[in-house]
Amino acid sequence: MSRLRKRCELLLQGMPIPQPFDLDTFCAVVAARRGRPLTLQPTPGLSAGAPCGLWISVPSADYVFYDPDTSRLHAEHIVLHELAHMLSGHTTQLDVNGGALARLVPDLDPRTVRTVLGRVSYTTSQEREAEMLASLIRARAAEPVAPSDLPGGTLNRVADVLKFRS
Question: Which residues contact 7 (CB under 8 A, 6 or more apart)?
Answer without folding.
Answer: 129
